Amino acid sequence: MPYIRRYLLSFLIFAFSLTPCGSLEASSLPWIEHRVNPGDTVETIALNYGIESDSIRKANEIPENEIFLAKPVVLVPRDEKLLVETLAEVRARSSGDTTAGYYLYEEDDDPDSLLEATGAAANQDLTARPGVFALSWPVEGKIYSRFGPRRGRFHAGVDISAPRGTPIKAAAAGTVVRAALRRGYGRTILIDHGNGTMTRYSHCDTMLCKAGDRIGAGQKIGTVGRTGRTTGPHLHFEVIINGRHQNPEKYLPSGNR
After folding, report:
1. Which pTM was predicted?
2. Do 76 and 49 contact (CB within 8 A), yes or no?
3. What is the pLDDT of residue 257?
4. Which secondary structure element, helix H or strand E, spans residue 159, and what is its range?
5. Domain span at residue 83?
């Protein structure tokens, strides 16, 4: 029994040493913050986190000939695909800034979304109003989180799961109002369709349009990603009519979603 207790204690100490520093919110960041201990090398850190040493070197801009690390902190990408996001944070920190704000906020924590989505008009069926038209599905995938209350908050859109790189298409013709980073939502595209109707596409990996562009219905405007606060690649899709968030499924074709 003493041997088992010692083994469990050793295991817990080892596991804790791999836990990223900071609050629990840090688990949503694309990187793990590793405080360098004496004798640490890129190879030993890579082995501990189960990632390629070359990814750590590239993300932290560590020269190939540097064996023992001079840096007090190394950022380890949580996934090989998150190297670019990690490198962006390393470079931001070198200038006294950080990109963490893009990842540490829930998409349904946005005060504007909450105010609009919880208003009385948010659940109003507007399909009979003049100028409101049917939309097409913006991405091929499965809805895994619907419009409405979620974990004590209000989810102002639908989350459609799809592999990273899946094409995102405009749900209707319109004009791009904004295509930029949005805190918590990552790369986000907002399209105005006229008659008070707008659609929003968030967590994009790439954006293939810019503000002012005229977009045709079904035109490819970006690709699915996991930018912003998200646990995996998906599209967060919103429908906003006269400033109020509506349930997107009311305006989309029915199907096996």
Report:
1. 0.55
2. yes
3. 55
4. strand 158-161
5. 2-101
Residue 179 bridge partners (DSSP): 189
Q: E strands within the chain?
A: 31-35, 73-77, 142-145, 148-150, 153-155, 158-161, 167-169, 174-182, 186-194, 197-207, 214-215, 220-224, 234-241, 244-246
Provide the residue count of the chain. 257
Q: Buried b vs exposed e over 171-195: b needs ≥16 C-beta within 10 Å?
A: bbebbbeebebbbbbbbbbbbbbee
Please give the single-letter amino acid code of residue 204.
C
CB 100 within 8 A of CB 229: no
Q: What DSSP state is assigned to residue 220?
A: E
Q: What is the spatial distance between Cα 176 and Cα 170, in angstroms, rounded to a whole number?
A: 10
Residue 244 has what DSSP assignment? E
Closest CA to 85 of 235, 236, 205: 205
For residue 204, what is the enclosing H or E element? Answer: strand 197-207
- Tokens (6 digits) for 25: 């919110």
DSSP 116: H
pLDDT tens digits for range 77-110: 988 878 887 888 898 888 888 777 655 544 444 4
**Both 75 and 111 in a single domain?**
no
Q: What is the mean pLDDT of residues 144-168?
A: 87
User: The tokens of 78 are what?
Assistant: 């949580």
In angstroms, rounded to a whole number, what is the distance separating the alpha carbons of residues 190 and 237?
A: 10
Strands 142-145, 158-161: parallel, antiparallel or unpaired by DSSP?
Answer: antiparallel
How far, in Å, CA of 134 to CA of 149, rounded?
Answer: 24
| Final residue before a domain boundary, out of 101, 133, 160 | 101
Cα 146 from Cα 144, distance rounded (Å):
7
Residue 81 lies in a domain: yes
